[in-house]
């Protein structure tokens, strides 16, 4: 009987599976073309981040977009290194190289795709988006506020401070 349980990505068993999968390349989905050796290398780096069975076709399409964005980012950064972050405009005044903003926009798109694919999360559970950024209030503080409310004073607004 086959065991159909889900394997945690951070388990030893998943690590062994990832090692076995590392020797096999994942082909891009139909309609996706990798145009250069740099794109092929990046594709292999990204797709080896998970085991073969962890990828959906839609994920692979997003990976192809990440690859294309990464190539653009590298090209833009190379031009910025050559030209400099500050350049002179037609009047001779120093200005920020417009490529800096363009690369920044592409990097934001790239990070968005990484987030969508949870590429930076190493555990199976990940972060609970409902708990991110919330303030932690100690149990003692909550009890003291509840106690004050029984006395007729309203200090709930203190939680926000």
How many E-type strands?
2
Which range best describes the helical content: under 10%, 10-25%, 25-40%, 40-55%, 55-70% or over 70%? 40-55%
Number of helices: 5
Biggest sheet statistics? 2 strands, antiparallel
How much of the sequence is in beta strands?
under 5%
Terminal Cα separation, in Å? Answer: 57 Å
Give the strand line-up of the largest sheet: 1-2
Sequence of secondary-structure elements: HHHEEHH
Task: Point out poorly predicted stretches.
Answer: 123-130, 153-161
Multimerization status: single chain
Radius of gyration using CA atoms only: 25 Å
Could you report the average pLDDT, rounded to the nearest whole number? 78
Shape: flat
Given the helix and strand composition, which structural class is it? mainly alpha
């Amino acid at each position: 009987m086959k065991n159909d349980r889900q394997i945690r990505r951070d388990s030893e068993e998943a690590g062994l599976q990832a090692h076995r999968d590392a020797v096999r390349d994942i082909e891009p989905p139909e309609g996706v073309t990798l145009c250069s050796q740099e794109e092929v290398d990046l594709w292999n780096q990204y797709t080896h981040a998970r085991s073969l069975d962890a990828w959906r076709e839609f994920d692979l399409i997003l990976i192809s977009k990440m690859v294309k964005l990464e190539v653009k980012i590298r090209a833009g950064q190379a031009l910025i290194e050559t030209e400099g972050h500050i350049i002179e405009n037609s009047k001779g005044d120093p200005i920020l190289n417009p490529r800096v903003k363009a690369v920044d926009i592409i990097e934001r798109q790239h990070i968005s795709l990484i987030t969508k694919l949870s590429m930076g999360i190493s555990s199976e559970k990940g972060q609970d988006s409902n708990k991110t950024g919330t303030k932690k209030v100690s149990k003692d503080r909550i009890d003291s506020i509840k106690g004050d409310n029984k006395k007729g004073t309203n200090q709930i607004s203190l939680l926000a401070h």
